[in-house]
Design goal:
alpha/beta, two-stranded antiparallel sheet, about 20% strand, about 35% helix, about 375 residues
Length: about 375
């Protein structure tokens, strides 16, 4: 296909709503609707935020929404999720939380609001699921399994090579590796150090996404002297092989350094996630094509969240808000941020309605009932 043929086809697909890129969720407001509509194959993206800022929840919200899009439009999609911090059970419970909320939000049969549970409820830690919701959970379980068919959760590989091996094996099962003369290489040949120069996927239209959550939990392997070394090696492998050769999209979750939360930064309102604040290995920022920041302004006692979409009353929203920022974007605008509703119990994000509107008042009423 020539360049102009590809451009015409992409234009036609967009006009008809038949998009091939992985869309960002509408719940992120202007962030997704205007500045960052979707993820392209072959790109390396970082999500960064301070501790307990909902970095993982934001990533899962993006992934779960993408699965909904894939199901709705019959699109081939797979997420290889490396959970360095949580177990497979914890991941499944977080998915159940998300789906219960989505199934009940705004439904007339749930006049008191969406059903909100997290892992502590599911395991009976000081609180438990209301028996009236047992049937609902049972009805939702098949949907959990359907979503999980789109995700491979790996909760036992912690070093650079172990993570790469899992990705390479998935690639091998869904394509072919070729040597310098175009010949197909077997796994034995590759293990024997035969170098491959090209990878050809069985289905070029398939969207494959890799998530590494999070980089600070990496273990060292032979030849790596510290965490910075391990992070640098992993990011390089993901950029040069997984993104460039396999054409997968990769999301790496990286903490902000703890110094970003000291008193001097709070006094100067320098608490928003930033490239300078990347923890443990700042230089990896050069390899990221896109960097998304997330910040809980309420945590630092600030009264107002100042963003490109207006100023938001943090006192009213409390912990149920997050500022989402575009810190770096290779193709598009950067230095943009907006504030969204964020429910940490279920990993849900929503666009905040206009202040004073009935929808806004209802959101505040819901927040009070959550507390």
């Amino acid at each position: 296909m020539s360049l102009i043929q590809g451009i015409k086809q992409a234009s036609k697909n967009l006009a008809e709503g038949n998009i091939e890129y992985m869309p960002m969720p509408d719940g992120l407001g202007a962030f997704a609707k205007i500045w960052y509509p979707g993820r392209m194959k072959g790109q390396l993206t970082c999500i960064t935020g301070g501790t307990s800022s909902m970095k993982t929840s934001l990533c899962k919200f993006i992934i779960f929404n993408t699965i909904e899009w894939a199901i709705r439009n019959n699109k081939p999609y797979k997420c290889l999720y490396f959970a360095l911090e949580e177990s497979l059970q914890e991941f499944r419970f977080s998915l159940l939380s998300y789906l219960l909320y989505k199934k009940t939000d705004g439904k007339p049969e749930y006049p008191d609001g969406p059903v909100r549970y997290n892992i502590e409820h599911f395991l009976g830690v000081g609180m438990a699921v209301d028996p009236k919701h047992f049937d609902l959970i049972e009805e939702t379980e098949p949907l959990v399994e359907k979503f999980m068919s789109y995700i491979h959760v790996d909760d036992h590989n912690y070093n650079t090579y172990g993570i790469y091996k899992v990705i390479r094996e998935y690639a091998r099962q869904h394509g072919t590796f070729h040597g310098k003369n175009g010949e197909v290489l077997t796994q034995a040949q590759m293990d024997g150090k035969d170098l491959w120069v090209e990878y050809r996927p069985t289905n070029p239209k398939a969207n494959v996404e890799v998530v590494i959550d999070h980089l600070s939990e990496l273990s060292l392997q032979e030849g790596q002297k510290d965490l910075k070394d391990a992070m640098t090696k992993l990011v390089k492998d993901q950029r040069t092989i997984v993104c460039k050769k396999f054409n997968y999209h990769v999301i790496a979750i990286q903490q902000q350094m703890l110094e970003m939360e000291n008193l001097e930064h709070i006094k100067e309102s320098m608490v928003y996630s930033s490239i300078q604040g990347l923890g443990d290995a700042k230089t990896v920022a050069r390899a990221y094509l896109n960097i998304i920041g997330i910040t809980n302004i309420h945590r630092y006692g600030l009264k107002v969240a100042s963003t490109n979409t207006g100023s938001y009353d943090v006192a009213k929203l409390g912990d149920y808000q997050r500022v989402i920022s575009i810190l770096k974007k290779r193709f598009g605008v950067a230095n943009r941020r907006t504030c969204v509703f964020a429910d940490g119990c279920c990993g849900i994000f929503k666009e905040i309605p206009e202040a004073g509107s009935e929808e806004y008042k209802q959101m505040l009423t819901n927040i009070r009932s959550y507390q």
